[in-house]
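[Meeting: bench + compute handoff]

Bench side (C.D.) handed over the final construct sequence. Compute side (W.E.) agreed to return the predicted structure before the next meeting so the bench team could plan truncations. Sequence as handed over:
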Amino acid sequence: MRTPSPWRSFLIVSSLCLFSLPMLLNHVLGAEAGPLKVGAFAIDITPEQFPISSAGSMRARSMTGANDPLHARCLVIENGNQTIAFAVCDHCMIPRELMDEAKQRIEKTVGIPASNILISATHTHTGVTVTPVFEAEVDEPYCQFMTDKIVEGIKTAWENRQPAQVGHGSGHDASQVFNRRWFVTDEYENPFGITTDKVRMNPGSNISQLINPAGAIDPEIAFLSAQTLDGKPISVLANYSLHYVGGVPGGMLSADYFGEYANRLASMIGADGDFVGIMSNGTSGDINNINFRLATRPAREPFEQIQFVAGSVASATKTAYENVDYSSALPIAVRETEIELGVRKPSTEEVAEAQAYIDSQEDSYKTTKGIYANETVYLADYPDTVKIKLQAIRIGDLAIVTTPCETFVETGIAIKHNSPFKQTFVIELANGYNGYLPTPQQHEWGGYETWRARSSYLAKDAEPKIRATLLTLLNELAEEK
């Protein structure tokens, strides 16, 4: 199997470290209020040729079609002084180099500064492989196709701008989110031969072994809403901390509940075909849609659970949507920076042991131990540190911040709680992909999300540094009021 370059997951550009604030790379944009214009567009990014590789599984999967279309859902907001753009894409994860290329092209062709553009992945597990992880290999032609589409989508959203009013709200749906990491009574061995992990991810249906979840949930559905001046819906950018749902017909690509939510919400609020519903992924690294307290769960037909979840979350959004207050002139400001984080690399001995195991197997990906042996070999070639991009965006008294990681819900809750803004939400898997982001305590407890791989390689102190930086950016934005 061809070894994907570790640099696919990173774009190493010049940066300053966390504690050298204020940083030269911070882009601070004036927060003057001005009359708003908004444009939106959902561009189809479903591949034109099949079969095609799909990420989201430890084994490589070949997809023969699409159950429902994939989109890059784009939104542009300007107030005469500053412009911001969003593109939320139906993929599992997207490497930074692809996003940066799209941003640079958008800046050149449309004029929106690259630092004002937020691109993220929804984390559907039935998207095309554009980032190498586990056995899945990147489909290079599709990467270029998708980059072109993101540029076209934001350009079209820009051209669709019209005078608008913007507001924000908060719905709640605790019925669809469950922490998937559990303290359990039984001892088990992880892929590295260690039996001291205290937490198990997706512990199964034997409820007698469950003690309690290793974390909280976040039931909030935070959203930004944009309408024309006479009240016609233009777009809703929502955010919910749910990993994905699954239950897609075999061999089919799908936008998962993220795409179905957009359809359901449009219908519920009476929007026309020009409306763009967008569901971004919140902090859901340890959250899924499975209630492990139930010994048995109801059987579902393919796509049925996705429809159920999307309908429930959209209904809760609609209730809050009906009470939103709108403004036709708001301040917009952005801060963007980079920080440098350590990488958990294997030792020389660990790499040698992993390679010996791989060599002894006809197909090393048939076992979990073999999967992580391959990951160990890949990580040996990674750099010692990686630079990640973080953003904070202000739209009136709403703030949006980003992480390029599968971030645990406790991190998102802490950022919301400590933000100086009236409402704040976190979009994860934004502006790059850098694996899971467990807290130091979660690292100590162990479990799948902490196991060293290309899906989890940042140093154990990464989460506190990311959290501190984002709160610093939020406080600096608040000072612009």
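W.E. noted at the follow-up: Residues 140-159 form the longest helix (20 residues). C.D. will use this when planning the next construct.
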